[in-house]
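Q: My labmate handed me this sequence with no annotations at all. I'd like to see what the chain might look like in three dimensions before we decide whether it's worth expressing. Could you predict it?
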Amino acid sequence: MTSFGDLLGPPPTLLTGDDDAESDLLNGADPAVVAAAHPSASIAWAYLAEAALAGADKGTEPDLTRVTAGYAFARTGYHRGLDQLRRHGWKGYGPVPWSHEENRGFLRCVGALARAAQLIGEEDEYLRCLDLLNDSDARAIVELGLD
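A: Here is what I predict for the chain of 147 residues:
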């Protein structure tokens, strides 16, 4: 439910983010350096995944080195994000709003994982990622260009 108005459902989960990692990235730091210094920051992994996947599908066949690197970065950020969500009370379902900036690292990792899975023909994983994004906040699918 994208309105987050279901009084019987769980409240939206709002992550706290990693101010140092986010500041470093916004100031142009190398995402690999940021991920190494702040491995629990999904946003750093999202930057790495999206960079690896950028242009990986240009041409007749996807660049599998870039796609698998993007997949690995996205999977890492996804799992680090799941850890954070659970620490914030998330039970495996319920809204994770795109509008909350600190949630975007996790959501971007899920989106990158969806793209990478689709590029290697892992349709089940692609659909699971879309379902997770839709359940979290359908706006994320649009914002990530997966609609």
